[in-house]
Amino acid sequence: MVGEVVRSLFLKRRLGGGMPIVWTFSVLACLAVDSFYFPARPTFPDERRFLASAAYWLSDGGFVSNGGKAWEMPLPSMIFAALRWLVGGDDVREIYAIRCFQGVQIVLQSWLALHITRSLCGDDRAARLAGAIVAFYPFFLFYQGLALSETLFDTALLAFFAMLLVWRRRGCRIGGALIGVMILGGIATYARATLTILPPLLPVVVAWSKKCSTRHSLMVLLIGATVYAGMLSPWWIRNFLLFDAFVPFATSSSSVLYLGNNPANLHGDSDWSRDAEQDVVEQINAMPQELDRQAAYAQRAKKFMMEYPEKTIERSLNKIRRFWSIIPNADGYSTGIFSIISAISFGPVLILSIIGIFVNRHIWRKILPIYALIAYFTVIHALTVGSLRYRLPLEPFLIVLAAITATRFLPKPRSGDGSM
């Protein structure tokens, strides 16, 4: 059953329209960015954290990140450790191995976006347009050159969604396709904890949009949640053995909640050196136990949110503004060439996506899971911290919506012109 589903997703449609050429040049663009723009060393502090975690994993056999044993999800560091081992433990070769691995993922993301678009609208022109944009989207080319979790998470999320549409096309039946959806949802969560409980809920949204019965939707939720829990159970068991407590996802979530909700954060920004109470951070970080630090950050954030609801709402609105900003928010990237590239790439995608809410009403039931995903990410980052970087997982889906909208304004193709 699962093999049949995979074949239907990956092998059924004949590629055309020059996409192999697009993907070849996409790989070349990634290589150019990796070789000529980025130096042969980490660029961002978060890269050093992932690389240090990978090195520690090889030397010690355990997972530690930023001084915590469950500070973030383990999959990126696990893969980086495997790549480091393959290249003999050399720091420079490891960085280039990661970049090559992530450059290939851009092609996979393009291919997944192509198939997602075609599943939603049946228009081969829109599918090829979405695939081509993803292949050369500046933000994707930029982040694939960084040793971060972004590219891996985006790929896993797209694969999860592509399988979700396969399951929808097969009638939302309880079987191998649903299991495949939840396996991919679990993999995405191992890449980053942002999804939390969303993977079992999205199939319910799809079942509802397909007009399935309430009983069937509840069975979908039950089976989906069971498989998802099974996928995460190794992480849960490992954490229980380490902490003697249930730690379902990542302990860093509390510190991120605090960063976005504390008296020093006046505008909803996300700079630890400026937007956090330094004495409080120093005091909490001095606590020896990871779960104690997590609880202290959570308590401090909740206290602020309860005592200052007006300020919390004001900051949340600022975070939404930052999250959906057309130009980068970070110092050094908010002006000049970076702001121009961002505006001319994300700007049209955002505008067309908004227009698509109206012009694509006839397929709103198919698109509904994307809207749910967008709403979920917006709410999560309105509560925690808002930044362009955290919007990145949504951008392949916005590109899909933009491509569908754009082709609605094009003349209808002659018979046979849109074949894939």
From TrEMBL:
GO terms, molecular function: pentosyltransferase activity
Spans through the membrane: 21-40, 126-145, 151-167, 174-193, 213-233, 240-260, 337-358, 370-388
Principal subcellular localisation of the protein: membrane
GO CC terms, sorted: plasma membrane
InterPro entries noted in UniProt: LipidA_mod_glycosyltrf_83 (IPR050297)
Subcellular locations according to the entry: Cell membrane
UniProt superkingdom: Bacteria
Keywords, alphabetical: Cell membrane, Glycosyltransferase, Membrane, Transferase, Transmembrane, Transmembrane helix
Key word Transmembrane helix present: yes
Biological process, per Gene Ontology: lipopolysaccharide biosynthetic process
Keyword Disulfide bond annotated: no
Record's bilayer topology term: Multi-pass membrane protein
Protein name per Swiss-Prot or TrEMBL: Glycosyltransferase RgtA/B/C/D-like domain-containing protein
